[in-house]
């Protein structure tokens, strides 16, 4: 049931990864135990030194809280209180292990379902990475209650991987990787090196039944991997208790299970955007249309002629060439309809003086833009 059951394989190429670390790796008898965290922190520091970026999703707040006050309370509300008691220690714990500055980010799934909050969270995370800081994310357990359990960080990590446009999701846990059945219950369970597609049958066979501190077992890890795969992101499951396994990651070797990406990342995102219902229309001039089509540029306020509809920041809108009424594509707006009306035809440098604030220089960022059929081909050419 350890890493030696798994042979070494290459990790896919990556520049930005989300690393999820479960409570099972951090909880000790007296709160958080650095024993396994040290190697993981070493991997993170090394990744930044290699010019890569890592976003950490870390569980462990409940375990840290219990070490401070333990009145034996079980159930949801006591757990939420424990998470609140332990969260600051969890961040302090990671800061002690790492050379880079860490930043606390608490998110809930609801934050990521709401397009505006999604964009705000993404902008903050991008800025932290630009500053070469390490975002340490946990679920905002005080407000996030998924059914009757604390929300699970495996699925949150998959959502974060899409949010930050990661190339890879790394899930560190207390077992060598995925087995064909729950290995602690079924002695005939076999290690699975590679998963091409996460099927319901695989999830059912994997089993939940985590330890006392973990939340979801392999079931939630596979659900997370399936979500990441759909977004075009591969997932690696490995044993974070084995320092050699963790060190090998820095050499792009994986001893564990690799779940392949189902689709090309950009294509997956564009697919989503293409089918999202439009909330309004941004009409652009020919100069802007050419910049979008031939240079793969972002849409700047200077090229916007007028706006139809009452949409909010983060909503999908259609982009139409004013003169020919030609639909060019679809994008997520950085500004609300009324704000775009005020900055239309202005230079990007003027956004702040007109609105009194600024989210960025573009009305629609190139990463949030998909052109229709023929225009897309021009853009990709
Ligand atoms: N098919 C499976 N393969 C491997 N582990 C499994 C499987 N099914 C259930 N598990 C259990 O999942 C546990 C890891 O999940 P969990 O305890 O939630 O850890 P974490 O705190 O890292 O999220 C393993 O220790 C193992 O007991
Ligand atoms: N947010 C909770 C963890 C929830 C969770 O998903 O735990 P785990 O299965 O150990 O990753 C905490 O910090 O304790």
UniProtKB/TrEMBL annotation:
This is Glutamate 5-kinase. One of its GO terms (biological process) is L-proline biosynthetic process. Belongs to the glutamate 5-kinase family. It catalyses: L-glutamate + ATP = L-glutamyl 5-phosphate + ADP. It comes from the Bacteria. It is found in: Cytoplasm. It comes from Marilutibacter maris. ATP binds at residues 20, 173-174, 215-221. GO terms for molecular function: ATP binding; glutamate 5-kinase activity; RNA binding. The gene is proB. Its main location: cytoplasm. Gene3D superfamilies: Acetylglutamate kinase-like (3.40.1160.10), PUA domain (2.30.130.10). Residues 280-364 form the PUA domain.
